Amino acid sequence: xxxxxxxxxxxxxxxxxxxxxxxxxxxxxxxxxxxxxxxxxxxxxxxxxxxxxxxxxxxxxxxxxxxxxxxxxxxxxxxxxxxxxxxxxxxxxxxxxxxxxxxxxxxxxxxxxxxxxxxxxxxxxxxxxxxxxxxxxxxxxxxxxxxxxxxxxxxxxxxxxxxxxxxxxxxxxxxxxxxxxxxxxxxxxxxxxxxxxxxxxxxxxxxxxxxxxxxxxxxxxxxxxxxxxxxxxxxxxxxxxxxxxxxxxxxxxxxxxxxxxxxxxxxxxxxxxxxxxxxxxxxxxxxxxxxxxxxxxxxxxxxxxxxxxxxxxxxxxxxxxxxxxxxxxxxxxxxxxxxxxxxxxxxxxxxxxxxxxxxxxxxxxxxxxxxxxxxxxxxxxxxxxxxxxxxxxxxxxxxxxxxxxxxxxxxxxxxxxxxxxxxxxxxxxxxxxxxxxxxxxxxxxxxxxxxxxxxxxxxx
Length: 460
Fold this sequence. Notes:
It holds the Pfam family bPH_2. Keywords: Membrane, Transmembrane, Transmembrane helix. Residues 67-145, 374-434 form the YdbS-like PH domain. By secondary structure, the chain is of the alpha+beta class. It has five domains: 12-146, no CATH class; 158-163 and 242-296; 169-238, no CATH class; 312-367; 369-459, PH-domain like (Roll), CATH 2.30.29. It contains 15 helices and 16 strands. The protein has helices at residues 12-35, 40-67, 106-110, 136-146, 176-194, 198-209, 213-241, 275-278, 284-294, 301-304, 312-339, 342-369, 407-411, 435-445, 451-459, and strands spanning 70-73, 77-82, 88-93, 99-104, 113-119, 128-135, 158-162, 245-248, 253-258, 263-269, 371-375, 378-383, 389-394, 398-404, 414-421, 427-434. A seven-stranded antiparallel β-sheet has the order 6-5-4-10-9-8-7, with helices on both faces. The longest helix is centred in the middle third of the chain and has 29 residues, at 213-241.
């Protein structure tokens, strides 16, 4: 593409007008309802001018942003200049670019626009340039141009995975589901409060559940919140992962396409790919197969490796953290129950009766999940319970190690060993491993890198 300076697409202005109108309506309706008790005319007199100001200011700000923004894709660098009073200059070397993320929300799609995020694989904001918006054709051209690399000979291009609608069954199992459910309950109370009906809603709920007793009523409320959360999680999954497809393109670039309303095309070099980017929650055998295909191995290192267990002291740490978390969650109920009502005291012991065995079981499961090992060119580490993570890190990509020991870890002769890398999240941990075992594993993974420090420690 041209190396001349170019401007962002001016169609961003009408997009901004529509967006600001939505913001004005969302903010103005509750305000108008709150003022309607005084007078409808007074409510409109306050709300309408404010809405006009919001739309005008937002539109002018967007026009000025476009007016003073320009970008250039040169043979060696991608540059973006922005700002009217405070000038901002961003520049990325093309050789360091690892990801190109092309996103289009419903408004941008209507106008044929996309937002392009160009990154170096680093998590710091300084390692990215965002061009928003540009035309859909420009976004696709940027994606292909910036990740143009010599073709890899080891593996041909092709499709690695496509959407299976049966995967939607995993959506309600996400930890997001209960959060969405209880958020929905809070949102309903907030909306009822706008209309002055929150008290009536609470009274109506109590009347309907009064015959079930305290425990039965709480169980029904929790079940209703979980059902709402499951429905919300299903909707969120469909929005995020509909039309999912994972392909390997020319030069070994991996491309993920997904999204129902907001579409997203993520192109990333294989060495920088992250599991959360490449595949939604899916059956274990398929996840291992995709991992093997991505790293160009016949069998995924996460599946083939034998993991060494960690000391029993690591189990004690997880039990203490889990039970301590339950205690912290129960303390407010206990204090408020002593100060306000016995109902909260009953709620405290009922929830503790459920939470303690659940927390203990999760802690034991988290301990059993701990493990690490070496498999060929890969260091593999596993941890977690509700959300268990198994990481296979190429040993040649490790550029450093961090050894962390808290006071309690030192007393138990445990340590958390982190492998530092330029890929993925930047660091991956072997958690609560015996100190000597962890250092030996790190030294075996990267021979010579830790040797001077180990020799120095032994000399002391």
